[in-house]
Amino acid sequence: MIKTKFNYDKYLRKNTLPHIWCPGCGDGIILKSLLRAIDKCGYSKDEIVITSGIGCASRLPGYVDFNTIHTTHGRALTFAIGIKMFKPRLKVITVSGDGDALAIGGNHFIHAARRNIDITLIVFNNYTYGMTGGQYSPTQPRGSYSTTTPFGNIEPPFDVCNLAQAAGATWVGRSTSYHAVQLEKFIVDALNHTGFSVLDVITNCHISYGRRNKMKSPVEMVKYQKEKAIPARSSQNMSPEDLAGRFKTGILFEKKDMPEFCSEYRKELEIAKTK
Amino acid sequence: MTKNIKLMQGNEAIAEGAVIAGCDFFAGYPITPSSEVMEVLSNKLPKIGKAFIQMEDEIAALGAVLGAALGGAKAITASSGPGMSLKQEHIGYASMCEIPCVIVNVMRGGPSTGLPTLPAQGDVMQAKWGTHGDHAIIAITPSSVNESLYETIRAFNLAIKYRTPVLILTDEIIGHMRERVVVPDKNDVDIIDVKLPDVPPEKYNPYNYTSGKVTPLAPMGEGYRYHVTGLIHGETGFPSQRTDVIQNAQNWLMDKIYKNIKDIEKFEEFQTEDAEILIVAYGSTSRSTRQAIMMARSAGIKAGMFRPITIWPFPEEQISNLSKRIRKILVPEMNMGQIIFEVQRNACGSQVYGLNIVNGEPIAPDQIYTKIKEIAGL
Amino acid sequence: MSDRTEFRFSGSGGQGLILAGIILADAAAIYENKNAVQTQSYGPEARGGSSKSEVIVSDSPIEYPKATKVDYMVALTQEAFNKYINDIKDDGIVIADKELVTDFSNAKGKLYIIDMVKSAREELGKLLGLNIIALGILVEISGIVSHESIEQALMKRVPKGFEDYNKKALEIGFKLAKEIKNNK
After folding, report:
1. Nearest by CB: B66 against A79, A89, A269
2. Pairing outcome for strands C88-97 and C110-114
């Protein structure tokens, strides 16, 4: 599907490979899509900053040759805000897992969205805390199993996209690690958007999540992504029953020309100067 | 130098000092009794084109400061009490990743919500040991409004020079009191600036554990692409679990501070030459101590004071030397006994007494004088 | 130590007592080149509760920044009067407002009951500025700084358009203090 062979080596820190991800993990697909998207957008390596928190997904920055910051659990967006505000010319991307972005980092998630600061957040959403052994996360479906929901999860999950939109993000989309071509396209779109963009990427952790939920192999999990993803447009005429257990994909929300934090701050500086 | 003299609050003086030091970035969260630092900077920084942001919580505030500092900003945050408890993880991150920043703690009564508007000195040990794992820290305890300003400038300099978080441990008394300050011109004070490394990007390693020299932190976005992680990392910045790398990294975090203690230390001695009773006091308590010493002297008691201005690393050598000739030492603190143990460890067998008053009021000169008389056997 | 003069403005949050202290300290420290320290103590309330603002003025350096033996105190609430009267010097001067403080059973030092509220109401038309009247009284009665210095320090901190109003409040204070002096 990808017509010309892409030179990933240009962006990889080969001395830090192999990566820590399990064979069959979806995170590598997201990484490759991200690199193709960055390349397509034409950014130089020096102007890209990637921050991450703690967890499997958050190991990504170590493998790529940009300005990379592997921060503390849940707080990647706070570092991103700091460096973006101080050097707005830099393109700042945050990668984060579902637990990282929405549980321990939930407060920063909604406030970054509220500020509409020009940062792209990519959530590697695998419904679980993979690195710590598969505890239930805030996106884990109700009724599913984990090392800490041995009798089934009684909590309803967050919908990352609804949450982002409600909090003020001005670009919101969802794809999966199965839909690699769409994923790349969406990352390009998110990066080109001015404002806070959130891309929820459903990815697979067959080791920590799938194994406990009748999807032992990566193949079964990828099949889940393929079958359960429903393009937003097709979902419009579907009944709630038909939509149960499925997730919408696509660019779900986009609002251009909304006040962006850094440019608003530049305006404030002009006012302050005269005071 | 034309003298610019102002009546100023301690917290305001910290903000003023930060601006003179060339502060580029403040992120904070409202908390009493430190909020004035944030309020003043919210006004001053935008006027000179610098960045100010009020974050969603205490943790985010220090996160943003560290992000900006990685971009090359001189960055500062301020907090108190529970806010400092929340900031501990990022203080550890700053230590581990060697990110320069200044953190102001205007100490209030604790634990927990404690006494938001009243003073204490209960965070001295937290300053050293608050975050998990071994690390060294620099902490400064100013005792006047004027000193708050100048020590903030020094805090920025030390942070950049040693690539470390530097804590300014002031207290509600100093933070909120107003007194006269001589505001210096930028050109009349020493200021260390953020610089690019003196090697080209391809030769740059963000860390150096072996040469004994602190590698400058390259501002991100200037061609020096590197990786920052809170995991133990080698000199290249990438995580490592090699035993030699781990030990080197751990040693370095301690050595870069302790081996440079002569440059970092700062203290004042008051009437110690002939003293028979030594009082070790810091912050606002040292003001009462000075007055108590004058009272004692007029009653014929030879008392003197040692006042650490840099409290971490602790001035072990000075205490040890003084205690060789002064065999009675009093340590008044607005806490239940913290620095007293550092004094005891270095006191060469001298008798060490505590005066620990934690009731929301500063320790008064009378209270210290009474204790001096008691120690003197009068 | 003996040349310390200690002032205390006490009342409740919102009465502007902290500002009164700051202006006094500014007049002493900046306009008269004396040593001056201002501190305050307040509860969690932005309005109400007890609050005090203290100023120490001295020719020698001031170490302990809080008042211990108060020379001059103003009380603008009963609660503050009761709470903060204890460390008044035997010959210290206490100025209490006639309407706001009514129970003087705890009185110490030399007590003067002055109707500041009435003066404010009659001469300023509103109670805003009670703090400046109190400031005027303490300045005049103590002679700690000149009228000129206190006026300069006051003008620096008064919002535009309120200069005359505040100057008038200050003068009311001077006048009330002169009456006390004459009655001494």
Report:
1. A79
2. parallel
